[in-house]
Input
Amino acid sequence: MAPPISPAADLRAGLDRLAEAIESATFRLPGDAAVERRAWREDAIRLLREYLISRLGDLSAPILVAVFGPTGSGKSTIVNALAGREVSPTGVIRPTTMAPVVWCLRGRAGEYTSGPFDGAMIAEDDHRLLKSLTFVDTPDLDSNAEENRRRAERILTVADAAVFVTTPQRYADAVPWEVMRRLADRRLPVIYVMNRLTRRSAGS
Output
């Protein structure tokens, strides 16, 4: 009698089959609809391979929290405030964060060197928050550099939760809210932060 297959192994095999089936999908008719569906297909494959299947390999891994938003909103400043030191560079040049910055528990850096984290800066720490959480300061979603935006979106694809940082001046920007719509479709937990709020911008 063959040994029983564990639920985790059975689920892994099912996810692999699903990813392969989605990869084999073709959209032969030209047009905007085909382009959009190809993008959905790539998003689904990344979600399966880089998040679900990867997560299944270590269910006790820290929760991955992506900090994202428009340029100049103060994402890096918030991550640095949580760390109590500078782990993500800040500055007046926009965009400042050109690559993801991963703030993680000492000894776990090797988990964030490939896939959506390729090229990321790693800041290891013994901070007590990092026993259960890993924070990623993402590149600006509305950057003129398209590669920055793609990197941010790939991090959001594999995140367990997110912090959306914006300002009164950037609140109405379209690009971050389009990303927010997709995160809502995923039912990803999101914390909203209105940064750099003054009495005048608050209407008081």
About this structure: The mean pLDDT is 83.
